[in-house]
């Protein structure tokens, strides 16, 4: 049973420790309400902004039906999908008055975009999300980026990312060739992020999402390998392990991640996340801010509505560690506590 619950991976790696215990939730307990029955999931009656109320049902469809209340394959794909949707935004195209991309949900609409090789592996999540805009009368962009922020929370330790709605219908096919390739040079990748409006510091925070990721198409011989030894947990272990280029069975190092950890262009910002308990907190905060920005690339931010109030509470790593380590670098995750927390959350969503 357990093996089907956490990222479909083994318990063995959970027994190892994770770096850092506390995940910063910018809203902390504000999601917990009187009427949610202690579940940490706001009900439609708890939601105060009428613009946000329709998204409660969208949230439940994504978190329950698609993610099954856990950090499953669909959740991981949804995080990557939010990057590949937003990452087609280009400041230079905007300045030149050309058709542009961005966080518009085009990957749910344009039948050609999902078939591009850079988007391999996201066909299933796209087919699952595709019916939701029509079903709930909301925009594709709002569905896609709500899925991305919910997916982060579905992974234990993932922070609450402020979540906005109000993206209009997709205007045009998004341009091709703009998603960074893992074999590209650091310089080219950094320039591409810069053209999206994403700083090196933000990019180094965002790639930490590889903590809960796996690869299938970079090297077929190592399909389904993960990018760190604790893929069930949203922790900073990915940064240190990649920098050391550890050779752990079942773990794959992306050429771009290895390069970021040593390039003079990126290593200072990368190294900020190699470390201790306070580092985990810094990363959680910076990741949440960078993901929020990514989810609005190319959008008129002033026209969007903050619907973070619909978001469920995050699962805090501090609640699933063996003991309080007093700030030590590597407090151990208690597998029983982790499973209990996952099962608790899962049972709520699958009701
Ligand atoms: C520096 C630019 C990036 C490169 C070159 C890159 C590259 C990749 C590659 C090659 C894979 C494996 C795909 C496969 O073979 O199945 C992957 C997976 C993934 N990436 Fe990235 N990535 C980058 C940035 C990001 C960002 C900014 C995010 C999100 C914030 C992200 C989230 C993910 C996730 C969640 C997966 C796992 C997907 C799954 O397990 O289905 N990546 N990435």
UniProtKB/TrEMBL annotation:
It holds the Pfam family peroxidase. The keyword Iron applies. Ca(2+) 1 binds at residues 85, 102, 104, 106. Its EC number is 1.11.1.-. Residues 75-311 form the Plant heme peroxidase family profile domain. Its cofactor is heme b; Ca(2+). Gene3D superfamilies: 1.10.520.10, Peroxidase, domain 2. Disulfide bonds join 52-307, 71-155. Heme b binds at residue 210. Binds 1 heme b (iron(II)-protoporphyrin IX) group per subunit. GO terms for biological process: cellular response to oxidative stress; hydrogen peroxide catabolic process; response to reactive oxygen species. GO terms for molecular function: heme binding; metal ion binding; peroxidase activity. The active site is at 84 (proton acceptor). Keywords: Calcium, Disulfide bond, Glycoprotein, Heme, Iron, Metal-binding, Oxidoreductase, Peroxidase, Secreted, Signal. It is an enzyme of class 1 (oxidoreductase). Ca(2+) 2 binds at residues 211, 228, 230, 235. Residues 1-20 form the signal peptide. The record marks 80 as: Transition state stabilizer. PANTHER family: CATALASE-PEROXIDASE, THYLAKOID LUMENAL 29 KDA PROTEIN, CHLOROPLASTIC-RELATED. Belongs to the peroxidase family. Ligninase subfamily. This is Peroxidase.
